[in-house]
Amino acid sequence: MARSTGKDAQALFHSLRSAYAATPTTLKIIDLYVGFAVFTALIQVVYMAIVGSFPFNSFLSGVLSCVGTAVLAVCLRIQVNKDNKEFKDLPPERAFADFVLCNLVLHLVIMNFLG
Amino acid sequence: MVNDGTFYFDEKLVNMREQQGPLATTSSVVRGLTAFSSVITESLNLTGDKILGIAKFFLGIGIPGDTKNFFDQVDSLACLENNRVSIPLILSLPSTVISLTKKDSLKVKVNTVLGSHAPPLTVTLVRAFSSSARDNSIIENQELKFDPQDAVYFLDDLPASFDVGEYIFVFKMLVQDSEQQTVYATGTLTQVPIYVTGLIKIENAKIAVLDSDLGSVETQKKLDLAGESTVSVSANHLQKLRLSFQMSTPLGNAFKPHQAFLRLRHETKVEHTFVVGSSGKKFEITLDFLGLVEKFFYLSGRYDIQLTVGDAVMENSLLRDIGYVELDLPEPPENASRPPPQPVDPYTRYGPKAEITHIFRAPEKRPPQELSLAFLVLTILPLFGFIIGLLRLGVNLKNFPTSAVPATFAVIFHLGIAAVLLLYVLFWLKLDLFTTLKTLCFLGVFLMVVGHRTLSHLASASAKLKSA
């Protein structure tokens, strides 16, 4: 039984990889961006775990900037994805403009909270 | 006429504006009297007592406050000094204290009002009696001898029965030349209070601690009140403290001083004072601590003992710390009264206080700088990973518009975003929110315009591509 689950997991993984290769490049860029943001957040959490959370507001602002920008990127991905029926009429440039604007606002707040 | 032998005139309150006091009134009477008597040939019928009374009034008021009164006083005395009615003679004593130890003699001076010499007189001490026993006169009719060098009348030795105390001496003066007796006013009798002082013998002084129930002596120590030595005793609240001594005059009589106090002072400066009672020559005070426990506020510890014995006629009055007593009192109950607060030295109360140094909050433990820098580098790494990933994906920059106008807009768009991010960095470093928001407004509006242009251009380009 374990061997079959192991084999199933591998098969699942392979199919996932092949399916992913079919996604358009733009979406891959956005995915990469999300990964980068999350990874940065993780590194900050590890740092805080090591040295303690003395300027807690700084830690929060750092992590939240990463998480916020990841969330905005995910929203962008949803809006830009052509397979998504809901946002068919929304031009991708408009979505990108929203993404940029929201990021700027987010980063203003983050900079204020950074201290 | 007043009881102390002075005599003066006062004015009836007729006119408020022109009111003069008794001094001015009497002096104007004297001036008139002496001026009148100097011009008439007959003598005025005036008793010497009245003139003497007026003279004593002027001499008895001290030095008046204002110049007019002072002038009146001196002028009247000058009139009286040499007037034709009768010249008053004043008897005075240079010292009213006679010390038995120094063997002082009684000295008496007789002068006119302004201090000039009197004619030869016979001064007699009529009576001398103790102020406490007025009927019993010790000296009677003793004539005083005259010392021409100092111009004093003196009495050489006082009789042996003169003990210390307060006395009243009564003198009488008589002008030796009988013809001149009407010229001078000597008065009848003059009373003078005299103090006779001497060394009082204090002996047999002892301090003892007694057992309260039986009255038996537990410790007894001799005191040397004349010297400097101190004693120390200890007692608890079940015992009594007894201090006793004997006092006698130089002649051996019993002596009751004006002040005989015993004071106990605690380390905390709380004091208690007691009067030493006497019977004849024996002075004794017993402090029963059982009854005094509450009065002493239940304070145990070391009490300094101070004895005070004094009187005006005692030449060896003493105020001395004679030692201390270690007192052991029980614990105070709940509702015992607290001792009264002792006066605080005003310099310590209003003086500078201890300096307060502010203790700052200990700063938080910061990580070592190398660790922080390492993690900074680690955090930047994902960015590079992102860029590398982008390149690997083969991101195309082909869609970047090449024609002039849209290109500029695209470039300006990217520059605009970079400018906003730079503004944020400046905001973190040194700007405040208000300037940042103001600048952001301008930049934001600018960016929106440019962005709209660029993106709409891109959108139209992709739409053209789609439709084509």
Automatic annotation (TrEMBL), chain B:
Q: How does it assemble?
A: Component of the oligosaccharyltransferase (OST) complex.
Task: Say which domain of life the source belongs to.
Answer: Eukaryota
Sorted alphabetically, the keyword list is:
Endoplasmic reticulum, Membrane, Signal, Transmembrane, Transmembrane helix
**The protein's name in its UniProt record:** Dolichyl-diphosphooligosaccharide--protein glycosyltransferase subunit 2
Annotated organism of origin: Citrus sinensis
Instruction: Please indicate if the UniProt record lists Lipoprotein as a keyword.
Output: no
Q: Name one Pfam family in it.
A: Ribophorin_II
Q: Which is one Gene Ontology cellular component term of this protein?
A: oligosaccharyltransferase complex
Q: Where is the Ribophorin II second domain?
A: 89-196
- The answer to keyword Transmembrane applying to this record is yes
